[in-house]
Sequence to fold (283 residues):
Amino acid sequence: MTKRTAFFISDSTGITAQNLGRALLTQFEFLAFEHTALRFINTPQRAEHARHVIERAAERDGQKPLVFSTLLDAEIRASLQATPCVYFDLFESFVSRLEAELGVCSQPVRGHSHGMTDHEHYFSRMEAINYTLTHDDGCTVAHLDEADLIMLGVSRTGKTPTCLYLSLHYGVRAANFPITEDDLDEMRLPSVLLPRRAKLFGLTTEPQRLQKIRQERLPNSRYASLRQCEYEIRQAEALYRKLGIPCLSTTLISIEEIAATIVDTMGMEYSRLLPTAAPLYSN
Fold:
């Protein structure tokens, strides 16, 4: 399959251009795309470099590259729009309508989308990350009442990366605890977690996937055997059901989907508006 080149161009980090551009391209999964990010295109010299890169891609591919842009400088935008490309201005589509609705003109400032414009929110996220790192894998139970979420799961089900993603992107103070073989044999959780049942969320996965992950870590061990993986997953899921702990299988979904589902399930985003609301889903 011939690949179509897609550029994500920004005068700052490029996160907005990449996220929105990639989201649009997922609607065309039957086509192949080669993704290239060009960040900090904020000087004439950098703009000239970006022009050459786009022109070379067009010459190589024999078709116009797709350019998803959040550039604010009009001259740099015009310079890149003159290249052989299909140019999508991701701000232009929305800013004019917002100006009309709000009755004021926008004041574009480079990097605001992912800069430290809201210092309180930024430092809240940094504190959440520090909390999550400190409370990884049951290392400490200190300040556990400050957790927004306590993640459970047997070893290698993705607790740590999910908690870090939640803290970084959502500002969630996420602790995580491993469910040990003793816990599974006795079908119980550590006593320190029982008073905090409302904060618990469980992860699970298919035994075959768990075996593959563990095999890479400790090859040919009892820990990595399919029989052991099947036992642990079966018992963990039964424990979640017994205690009414919401859970999610991580087998076929990305970390972004896992995190968003947890936030939605636990009602974390709308709790500010509906503080008495119950979670949307339960076992």
